[in-house]
User: Fold this.
Amino acid sequence: MFDEIDDNVFRHGNILCAPVVHSRYYFALRAQRLIEEFKPEIIAVEFPQALKRLIIQGVKMLPNLTVACASQDGEDYSYIPIDPCDAIVHSVRIGLERRIPVHFIDLNRFDLAGPELRHTPDDWALPRIGAAAYYEKTMERVPLSEIGSLDYMREQHMAASLRRLNCFERRVLFVCGMIHWERIREMLESGGGFEYFDLEEPDALSFLANLHPESAKEVLEEIPAVAGRFESARIIGEMDRNEEVAKLIEQAEDEAGRISTSAKTALHRYLRKLCATSLQFTPDLVDLLTAAKCVCGDEFAHALMEIATRYPHCEPDTALPDIYIVRRFEQCDEGMIGRKTVKLNRRRNTTWKRNMKRVTLRRRPPELYEGEWRDVWDLSSMHVSHTPEDIRLEDYNSFIRDRAIMSMTEDRTRVVEFTTSILDGIDMRETLRNAATGKIYVKETPSARGGVGPVTVIFDQDNMDKYPWRAVWHSEFSYESDLLMMTTPPGETLVGPGISQCRFGGFTSVYPPRGMANYWAVYDALREKGFARNEADLLLYAAIMNSQEKFVAYVAKYPPSSILKNIAQSKGVHIVFIPISTLNPDSVTKLQRFHVLGDKRIRRIAEKYIF
Assistant:
């Protein structure tokens, strides 16, 4: 049972207060558990009675997001997001589900403008240090309301309303913002408080609207994807926010490609440091995207942003208007309902980490209309490559050729005792091993005779079926090679008009270009003859057949078959095997991802969509 049920800090007679920080996941779960343990007969919440009908309507629509808006003049509106992670909203929801009477006892005023820039401790600490300790640490830095202020009048109104409810001698759970409870408790103990019915605004214009999915990241204090998982957490029990953030990173890997273990470690380390600079234990959306951008680049950060800002429950009520909200820090928020724009002020509460942090990501221009990118792709007939990626591919192939030559020379290196020449340098390992004898040993590395011709790279040797598109691309420019490749299907993942993101399963690069034949046409015949067991063997076979040099570089997980070694030997070619695990995994991941353009004209705009 919760200690705070019997804690005098949160009790006054039959009233138990659950002071909360708005829109925080751990406070919502705490309110749920208090209801289960305390078994209240009445739930009182810090919401105005005038909006009870709209708020209850929105709560019944959860987990779909809605916003309750109210205005006195029809121009400036105050709004309350019906946030599933908000403890007050969640308490109303549980009350409705369990048929517990719910009373809205806040003052009916809608001029409670703007978020107050007060920063509370991370709610991750709440279940770990307890509510009393959290409350004490928070209230050390948060000033109480000034006498005569609107907040003070609200607290007087809520105190008087609670005293009225307490007359029934029933268990009352009061859920309110943390900054209000101290004043309200003082008023309950001293007999203070006053219900300001003359300050209410009964004629306010109000409505409930569906929150546009794109506005979830603007309105929710939690990361939208994490907020969406609260629906299961409230049923199965507590989930750890940091674990949920780690799952988002894993999902981004599925879309943007796997990142290396070292990069993932660096990403999490960076996240921890960003949290520490904000005096928090868990990252917010800006922290998450900043770390992803700095460690993994814009492409991965963009994929992570798409996943993290995607709220999973979006089934709007067609009878309600849709509202698109843009948050502002130094001025009113903006809400767009159809073609109408209204000024919005979020109902005042104590914010958690909302501050002036920013992260700049490259953003792809949106579609001019839904399906534009697909239409442009379908009208394209001549697939071409993205020129900057061609240059990157050729540069990496040159690196692999140099790596192959280095590998051959290292294999032929011999160590001899120093006599008259140091040859190719002192071998320190052997010299130290024989330090007792006083002898010096030197290395002799004979130069490789012949160059490296074609390069074959197999990225995913265990999952070749994932790459059904088999093609050959001939060089357009003098610096390019002919490319025999197998990839994911073009057109499957579109990132721009007529621009498809693909992944190599493997390729063979032949430079200088010779107008390489399409070996995929004879793949079945080569398999029947036993020359090629699979697609990787075919790519290496093509490299051997097209090599004008003595060596062929083969990068893969597994070494070449003995059959291909014999074929290469009969052609006077030597296969230099380089395990793909010895290459930088981040560089390999970047090389594996490439883009196919619908035709040459798209090259002029491709840089806006490819990064």
Q: What stands out?
A: Residues 387-412 form the longest helix (26 residues). Residues 384-411+450-608 form one domain. The longest strand covers residues 499-510. The CA atoms of residues 284 and 592 lie 31 Å apart.
